[in-house]
């Protein structure tokens, strides 16, 4: 259980119980969860792993406490939505899937609150702390292994190789996951220009060093892309159809963040890299758009 979530509950006079620590069967834990909700709750909010069967077993019955399902992983198969009275969506693209593919009409938008972006740090100092020179451009990606699992024509590691071949001086930094053997090999083959830097305790140093944010494929990380945009980092992503609504969410003022083809992506990166004034213009427009509309 996230310590911060448990602490927040306790500070407000609440409590928490870690059911996964109990040496009981699935049905026993589901019955306990149902009884706890019946005795204590006016409303149940499910913010769960989409493959977790426990809430579906616990609340798949008539006469239960009202259940809200938070659809934070709208791109994947889910079990818990089947027992919901209402679905809370974070993205219009996810809501379209809920309503049109999962045929669940009681779906409502619950926008993600963005924290005020911190004051930008010293970009050159951040680069030096990462062992880079002041003049090296940094392209940052924040992702997780399941988001970049190769699928058909979409292969994130191959995409990074193509970017490196085209812009061999650029540093491509990936954070959010441990460096595997494949990533170590890619780092060596790229002369240390493509780096998987693990899971930092504080990602601020990497955001401070970044000149461009490249969202992952086949699944992006829209929260991280928004965080980059709010910091004034230009965002670029290959649209594979899963993110067709994203331009309107991230940049309603017309800042182009998504492109349709790999060649367009490479060309857009070339422009961002080679034209500093254009990069600064996009940075300011995107930052203003995110801060005023998201």
A few lines on this structure:
The protein is of the alpha/beta class and 294 residues long.
| Overall shape | elongated
In the sheet with the most strands, the strands line up as 7-6-5-8-9-10
Percentage of helical residues? 25-40%
Q: Strand content of the residues, in percent?
A: 5-15%
Q: Which class best fits the helix and strand makeup?
A: alpha/beta
Mean pLDDT: 87
In words, what does this structure look like?
- The protein has 294 residues and is of the alpha/beta class.
- The protein has 12 helices and 10 strands.
- It has helices spanning 3-11, 26-40, 54-59, 92-100, 123-129, 156-166, 181-189, 204-209, 222-230, 246-250, 262-274, 276-293; strands at 44-46, 67-71, 86-89, 107-109, 138-142, 171-175, 194-196, 212-214, 235-238, 258-259.
- It has a 6-stranded parallel sheet with strand order 7-6-5-8-9-10, with helices on both faces. A 4-stranded parallel sheet has the order 1-2-3-4, with helices on one face.
- Helix 6 crosses helix 11 (262-274).
List keywords for this structure.
about 290 residues, alpha/beta, four-stranded parallel beta sheet
SSE order and pairing:
Blueprint (H helix, E strand, L loop, with lengths): L2 H9 L14 H15 L3 E3 L7 H6 L7 E5 L14 E4 L2 H9 L6 E3 L13 H7 L8 E5 L13 H11 L4 E5 L5 H9 L4 E3 L7 H6 L2 E3 L7 H9 L4 E4 L7 H5 L7 E2 L2 H13 L1 H18 L1
Parallel strand pairs: 1-2, 2-3, 3-4, 5-6, 5-8, 6-7, 8-9, 9-10
């Amino acid at each position: 259980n996230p310590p911060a979530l448990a602490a927040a509950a306790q500070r407000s006079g609440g409590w928490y119980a870690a059911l996964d620590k109990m040496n009981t069967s699935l049905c026993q834990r589901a019955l306990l969860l149902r009884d706890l909700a019946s005795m204590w709750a006016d409303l149940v909010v499910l913010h769960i792993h989409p493959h977790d069967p426990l809430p579906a077993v616990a609340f798949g019955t008539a006469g239960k406490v009202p259940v809200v399902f938070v659809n934070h992983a709208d791109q994947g198969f889910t079990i818990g939505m089947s027992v919901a009275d209402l679905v809370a969506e974070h993205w219009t693209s996810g809501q379209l899937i809920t309503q049109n593919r999962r045929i669940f009409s009681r779906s409502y938008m619950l926008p993600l609150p963005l924290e005020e972006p911190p004051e930008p740090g010293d970009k050159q100092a951040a680069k030096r702390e990462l062992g880079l020179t002041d003049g090296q451009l940094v392209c940052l990606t924040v992702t997780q292994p399941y988001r970049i699992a190769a699928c058909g024509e979409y292969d994130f590691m191959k995409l990074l190789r193509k970017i490196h071949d085209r812009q061999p001086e650029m540093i491509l930094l990936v954070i959010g996951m441990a460096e595997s053997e494949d990533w170590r090999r890619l780092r060596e083959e790229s002369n240390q220009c493509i780096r998987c830097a693990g899971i930092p305790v504080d990602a601020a140093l990497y955001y401070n060093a970044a000149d461009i944010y490249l969202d992952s494929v086949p699944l992006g990380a829209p929260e991280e892309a928004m965080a980059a945009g709010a910091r004034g980092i230009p965002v670029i992503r290959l649209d594979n159809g899963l993110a067709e609504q994203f331009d309107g969410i991230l940049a309603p003022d017309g800042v182009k963040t998504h492109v349709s083809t790999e060649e367009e992506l490479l060309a857009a990166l070339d422009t961002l890299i080679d034209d500093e004034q254009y990069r600064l213009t996009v940075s300011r427009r995107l930052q203003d758009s995110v801060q005023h509309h998201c």
